[in-house]
Amino acid sequence: MLRRLYQWVIKLAERPSAPWALAGVSFSESSFFPVPPDVMLVPMCLARPKLAWFYASICTLASVIGGLVGYAIGSLLYDSVGLFLIQLYGYGDKVDAFSQAYQRYGHWIILIKGLTPIPYKVVTITSGFAHYSLFWFFVLSVITRGLRFFMVAGLLYWVGPTARTFIEERLGLVTAALALAIVGGFLVSLYLL
């Protein structure tokens, strides 16, 4: 079943509509959706390595725009939508501490958390809630999200065929590692937040 799902994702990544789906996932992950765009970015880069930089650009642009929506949720709608989303992901009791940390370490929080599998929506919503500088939020989001997606795309561009062979031969191991990274990101963010 896992192999069929993998083949389906690879076929989906080859479709002309795949960049639009990638943009949608990247946008929504930065504001409310729990699944990181890597689940589409990786197969798309494996299916078409020559378009890896284009796909990383889509992820970056859509993620930053989605981050601005997340910021707006935190700034303008925190008491309704923002609080609901934060509590949905289990961070409700830690937002005040996170908001206070922004006063001292806002730049570093955005830069570090934007590179990790830690849910970026928590950063975007809390940035708005903490009334962190919108200008610096935007600049740091472009840097950190761009770096994150271009690193993945670059790695897959340079080792694409080797990576694809590795993934296809060890699909169960790779899937388990990806699941652990996502769950680990949530756990680390709960602990550090």
Automatic annotation (TrEMBL):
Domain of life according to the entry: Bacteria
Transmembrane stretches, start-end: 52-73, 134-159, 171-192
UniProtKB keywords: Membrane, Transmembrane, Transmembrane helix
Keyword Transmembrane: yes
InterPro entries cross-referenced by the UniProt entry: DedA_domain
Entry-linked PANTHER family: ALKALINE PHOSPHATASE LIKE PROTEIN, DEDA FAMILY PROTEIN
Protein's recorded name: DedA family protein
Lineage: Bacteria, Pseudomonadati, Pseudomonadota, Alphaproteobacteria, Hyphomicrobiales
